[in-house]
Design goal:
It comes from Klebsiella variicola. The protein is mostly beta strands. The protein has no helices and 25 strands.
């Protein structure tokens, strides 16, 4: 791709090897050309043409098109809750979000910083969602910034940290809980003439063929917030959908892929409370297929 300030040139190459060199260029499946926004002047008209090449040589230039540069870069728009309250032993989950216009590029760098006194530790200061913990009670101002390379936006959340009310976890960022097998769960088995819920010789519970079949576990979490649920399952009879219910909430439907008889693991995001939580798995309204499950494990990384 070549660009010029007039229809007749002079021309500057601004894009190379846009197609893969083998297949015909398809804009729906191949990366489209994107000029460097930083090199363009707002309100100016630019002219573009294209050449192609193969093993036999290079084509003549294409027809010339004109584009008036009218897209003014806007700073990212940041959304952040203004105030949070926690205790020193719990830390806090920080969740920011941002939207950008994709200019000057699709890359936006994000980060958390502390303003003022006191010491704050971030699990991942370069992520919009992370956890933080504090060395002492007090009031902390934590600022989230989204930077598109030319413009940036920031918002600050005030975190009020009280005295510890319990024992602090050994690690505020990572957690690997107990593996709960089917033996540790409580079964609810619906009456049926066939395909009754049972544990096989391989240790998998299934097939959850009847609506209402479920298993429930009481699991522990060191703090309130987002976790991952490692689910060991078996989809030997094909793909299916079953659901998890956390602390009596709405069923969270999960599509499970087909597996071999050894099964595999799938990670499901869940929101848990500090302490004891009830997690149920089973066949709820709208679920389908035959499913086998062996264990669950709560983790944070």
């Amino acid at each position: 791709v070549e660009r010029a300030d007039s229809p007749t040139g002079p021309w500057t190459v601004v894009g190379r090897d846009i197609s893969d060199g083998v297949n015909e260029w398809n804009p729906e499946t191949m990366v489209l050309f994107r000029d460097d926004y930083r090199q363009l002047q707002l309100g100016h008209t630019y002219y573009y043409r294209v050449t192609a090449k193969n093993e036999s040589g290079r084509s003549a230039p294409s027809n010339v098109i004109s584009v008036q540069h009218s897209e003014e870069n806007q700073p990212p728009v940041v959304t952040l809750e203004p105030a949070l309250t926690t205790t020193q032993d719990q830390g806090v989950e920080l969740t920011a979000s941002w939207q950008d216009d994709g200019l000057p590029s699709r890359e936006v760098k994000v980060g958390w910083q502390q303003a003022g006194d006191g010491q704050v530790h971030f699990c991942h200061a370069d992520r919009a969602q992370t956890r933080a913990w504090f060395t002492a009670p007090g009031t902390y101002a934590l600022t989230f910034t989204a930077d598109d390379g030319l413009l940036k936006s920031s918002k600050t959340v005030t975190v009020t940290v009280g005295e510890a009310t319990g024992k602090a976890p050994a690690d505020f960022c990572r957690y690997y809980g107990e593996v709960y097998g089917v033996a540790e769960g409580r079964l609810t088995v619906m009456k049926s003439d066939k395909d009754a819920l049972t544990v096989g010789e391989d240790g998998f519970l299934g097939p959850f063929a009847n609506e209402g079949d479920k298993i429930g576990w009481q699991v522990q979490a060191p703090w309130s917030g987002q976790f991952l649920l490692n689910v060991t399952f078996n989809g030997k009879w094909g793909g299916k959908q079953n659901s998890f219910v956390v602390n009596g909430g709405a069923p969270q439907a999960v599509a499970f892929p087909q597996t071999d008889e050894q099964g595999q693991q799938l990670r499901i995001p869940v929101t848990l409370n500090a302490g004891t939580n009830q997690i149920d798995f089973g066949r709820f309204a709208g679920d389908w297929g035959y499913m086998f499950i062996k264990s669950i494990e709560v983790v944070a990384e």
